[in-house]
Amino acid sequence: MPAGFPTRSKARLLHSTRTHPLMQVKETGSLTVDERSFRNPKLRAAFLISYKTVADLLGKAALFAITIFAARRLAPEAFGVFSLGSTLGWIVAVASDFGIQLHLAREVARAPHAAPQLLATWLRVRLWLAAAAMLLVVTTLALLGSRAPFAAPVAVLALVYAVSGLIELLHYFYRGLSRSDIESTLTLWQRTSTLVCGLLALALWPTVTALAFAMLLPAACTLGASVRIARRLSLAEGAGLRDTTKSAEVSAAVNTDRARLAGLAAWPIFAREIWPIGAGIVLSALYFRIDVFLVQWWSGSELVALYNAVFRLVEALRLFPAAVIAVALPSLCRAVDLRPLVRIAAPITGCAVLAAGVLWFAAGVLVPFIYGEPYTGAVASFRILLLSFPLMALNLALTHQLIGWHGERAYAVICAIALAVNLAINARLIPAWSIEGAAWATVATELLLTAGCAAVLWSMATRLTGTVAEDVVMG
């Protein structure tokens, strides 16, 4: 059985068929820093999901507004530098994290009493990795002999995304503690401040360097505030558990998990548990977006524009299921059977089916209305992509449950197979059916991902049920 898989063993006391004393403490103890009290847990969950969805929508809208205004105010060459720096920064953020944030959320959800140790360890590792990534960027720019007007804004934009990656790590920490409301508040503050500073810089000093520094300031301030909040919250979590720890069993559980976590070095954990998560994330990003490059290769830039435009609409639809998963992540990590997954996956998949059906009928009017008449040719591919949206929503739940149960190696393998299948199907369908072929390849890949994750999760759940039954028999 994978290390860390929820069982009744002493190493994982948090995961038993009965509510563990630590979980009872969490449920009945005093509220943590700034925690809201909801009489109905469903009301709190609905609030968190709604707040997260609104925050993400407004955050993306703010960045989109900056991009549009930058395209109008900057010279074409300067806007190209802005696009290059933003892309490089995104790569820096993904490469320097490589699955750490999801690992942190999982471990905090399972052992909230160890939040201070977990936060200190992985924040320190991420700081070193971000610094190393930035050093590599600066060194590469120097070796390429880039002229200063080009190198400076690219380096600053890369730093903006590196800092944002650290903020995202802390967001996942809040998710592990079921405090996505803090994440949403910080997202709104950062994106609103970035919008104001960015528009002001473009209005007064329309240069890409000024825009880069204007985006860096809110990010740096948000990181400083978030670090302070996260440390205070983690200490309060530990203090609350100490104050409410009354039984010998609870004390033993707390001390055992703290001693275990204190004795584990970061790098062995990275090699054993984190890199498969990072590999799976990178592979999934590739199969999710590589069809754009394949359409460019076989069909040309004009069809890329059509396909990318409607794909962005489907991608935007994923904000709601992603918000639900962000709020529900702790329950998935603590689950000892598939019931929490079913309770989460069923409604988001049902909502996705309903939304896809409505948009399928409205596609003929919606696509030209949003993008203009030249994009009418993308209506057919949009309708095909809508068929994959319910699968995308379901797969968000399945993949997070898989990682929550320490199935990260299986997740990486499934994503690698999905990428290979996606490439093979696209190679056959894009030359024959153009962007409609790429859309069908996306549907087929999501179906494969669903089948793979479901098979592995069923196997893991069956083994877990057998282990729990054996523990009950043994007393």
Features:
mainly alpha; 15 helices; 85% helix; globular; disordered C terminus
What would you note in describing this structure?
This protein is mainly α and about 475 residues long. The chain has 2 domains: about 1-265, no CATH class; about 265-475, no CATH class. The chain contains 15 helices and no strands. The chain has helices at about 20-30, 40-75, 75-95, 100-110, 115-145, 150-175, 180-205, 210-245, 250-260, 265-300, 300-315, 320-335, 340-370, 380-405, 410-475. Helix 6 (about 150-175) packs antiparallel against helix 7. The two termini are about 20 Å apart. Mean pLDDT is about 80; it is low at about 5-35, about 240-250, about 250-265 and about 470-475.
Secondary-structure element order, N to C: HHHHHHHHHHHHHHH
Number of helices: 15
Mind summarizing the main beta sheet?
none
Give Rg in angstroms: 23 Å
Question: Could you list the spans in which at least 5 consecutive residues all have pLDDT below 50?
Answer: 7-37, 242-250, 252-263, 468-475
What is the CA–CA distance across the termini? Answer: 21 Å
Share in β-strands: under 5%
Average pLDDT figure = 81
Shape: globular
Give the beta-strand count.
0
SS class:
mainly alpha
Count of individual domains: 2
Short summary of the structure?
The protein is mainly alpha-helical and 475 residues long. The chain has 15 helices and no strands.
